[in-house]
Automatic annotation (TrEMBL):
Annotated keywords: Oxidoreductase
Similarity annotation: Belongs to the short-chain dehydrogenases/reductases (SDR) family.
Organism expressing this protein natively: Devosia soli
ATP-binding recorded as keyword: no
Protein name per Swiss-Prot or TrEMBL: Oxidoreductase
Length: 250
């Protein structure tokens, strides 16, 4: 992929910020969105190629207005990356409606709000890459992650459908599945995080995967991906015996 115009949701922090800086260094013009204007401004200060567009993905009218503004300001969107997410470790058996509402509204419905204007723009242009940061946590239902894990599973399923349906419009749908990466999101975790990666390292793999191939899935680190994929295909009696071990002792 040649450098063009990118729009990154969640570009003000963590993986999104690191991907933004790497794309800008490669010559991309990068629009970044998120709710915290100070975070966006700090990332934008790294390069004149980075433009902040504050946005809350739970606000449908603001999503439409921002997509239209970016099209006017920058002329189009060659690469869209959705990386907004809410995550909260949940107590075992905690199905708080309010927590689910926030997590589903951000992680899943946030993408749906953006998909319509972004895909319309890409259809007009005749091409585009539509990427979403899902997670290996979406490969199967993880204890203590009821809301987050199920939104990521929903995203993976949705993206499979979109990849097939949007191929005739020359829109390449890409699914990014990181393992554990150091960020604000994981700083609050109080459990072991195997194969934890640095943010920069994760961003390098994402940028490489997006710009040097058209493949659907960009998943890393390899050991974590194989572990999770193997667990996903275990027969259920074995799977649930293993999951039981992930429950807290008390
Ligand atoms: N870190 C990991 O181990 C890991 C593993 C797998 C997948 N992921 C995924 O990678 C993506 C980036 O996460 P991260 O680890 O880099 O953590 P992060 O720094 O917390 O990134 C999440 C981003 O989402 C934005 N966001 C949250 N709610 C939003 C809303 N309502 N509207 C607009 N933006 C919103 C946040 O910005 P504001 O708060 O300013 O809005 C923030 O920039 C997420 O999709 C996450 O699920 C992370």
């Amino acid at each position: 992929m040649k450098p063009g115009i990118a729009w990154i949701i969640g570009g003000g922090s963590g993986i999104g910020a690191a991907v933004t800086k790497q794309l800008a260094a490669l010559g991309w013009t990068v629009a970044i969105s998120g709710r915290r204007e100070d975070k966006l401004a700090a990332v934008a200060a790294a390069s004149p190629n980075i433009r902040p567009y504050p946005l809350d993905v739970t606000d449908g009218a603001a999503v439409d207005a921002t997509a239209a503004k970016i099209a006017v300001d920058l002329g189009g969107i060659d690469l869209f990356i959705f990386g907004a997410a809410a995550w909260e470790p949940m107590k075992v058996g905690d199905y708080s409606f309010e927590k689910f509402k926030t997590i589903v509204d951000t992680n899943y419905l946030g993408l749906i709000r953006l998909a319509n204007p972004v895909i319309a723009q890409m259809r007009n242009q005749g091409s585009g890459h539509f990427a979403v940061i899902a997670s290996v946590a979406g490969y199967f239902g993880l204890p203590r992650s009821a809301a987050y894990s199920s939104t990521k599973a929903g995203l993976i399923n949705l993206l499979e459908t979109m990849r097939t349906e949007l191929a005739p419009s020359n829109i390449k749908v890409r699914m990014i599945a990181p393992g554990f990466v150091k960020s604000e999101l994981t700083d609050k975790n109080d459990f072991p995080m195997p194969f934890l990666m640095e943010t920069e390292d994760a961003a390098t793999r994402i940028v490489e995967g997006l710009t040097t191939s058209d493949r659907f899935e960009i998943a890393f680190p390899r050991r974590m991906v194989w572990l999770m994929k193997t667990i996903r295909f275990l027969p259920y009696p074995v799977f649930f015996r293993l999951m039981k071990r992930l429950l807290p002792k008390k």
